[in-house]
Amino acid sequence: MFERFSKSARDVVEGAVGHAERVVSETVAEEHLLLSLLEREGTKAAFVLNALGVTERRELLERALGEARRRGGISRVDAEALAGLGIDVTEIVARVEDAHGRGALATGRRPRHWWSAGHRPFTREAKAVLERSLRAALARGDRHIGDEHILLALAAGPGVVADVLAEYGASQAEVERVLGGDGKAQPLAG
What range does the record give for the signal peptide (predicted)? Predict the structure, then answer.
């Protein structure tokens, strides 16, 4: 499948690995793909993220991803749903952190071991994003997978990254609207 990736999509994947390395994560996760997309310039995905105002709110988006990671991968939306059932996720996280230290529930950040040096596997969820990007490209009639297809797959997928993207205005529907029906990025109607 990787042979179908355009240069921009390959750059996103390589950038995601770089993000995982910088935060000393043993695996490359969906959030690393998103953070890599946010660094792109001059690509279709960069245009979409700029048009939707996501790029300018990157710091807030990163904070939301960090809080979800700290909650053990539970999104804000999920935490609110649990609160409706009388379950206070914030209190649970506080108790666990009191007992085991800050970030005890954080996902994807463990000390590196000698046997993992040099190789970071992709999480099941990140692999699913790459598979969905292929389906997005095929559905749009494209022969290659571009970074816009990775963005579509992130926005369409279940999980924290899709929830955070939607919270910041980049839901699947909005990404598709800005890309347009032919897969070409379209400016927002003023």
Answer: none
Q: Which domain holds residue 141?
A: 2-67+120-179
Least confident range from 27-36, 77-86, 163-172, 173-182: namely 77-86
- pLDDT tens string 80-92: 788 888 888 777 8
Report how far residue 144's alpha carbon sits from residue 189's, in angstroms, rounded to the nearest whole number: 28
Q: For residues 163 and 142, what is the distance between their CA atoms, to the nearest angstrom?
A: 26
Centroid of chain to Cα 86? 29
Which tops the pLDDT comparison, 111 or 106?
106
The tally of domains found in the chain comes to 1
- The answer to whether residue 172 is domain-embedded is yes
What's the alpha-carbon Rg for the chain, to the nearest Å? 17
Answer yes or no: is 113 within a domain: no
104 in any annotated domain: no
- Alpha-helix residue ranges (DSSP H) falling in 52-123: 58-70, 76-84, 89-100
Looking at 39-184, list the stretches that DSSP marks H as alpha helix, in order from N- to C-terminal side. Answer: 44-51, 58-70, 76-84, 89-100, 124-139, 147-156, 160-167, 172-179
**CATH assignment at residue 59:** 1.10.1780.10
What are the pLDDT digits (tens) for 151-171? 999 999 888 999 999 999 999
Q: For residue 78, tell me if it sits in a domain.
A: no
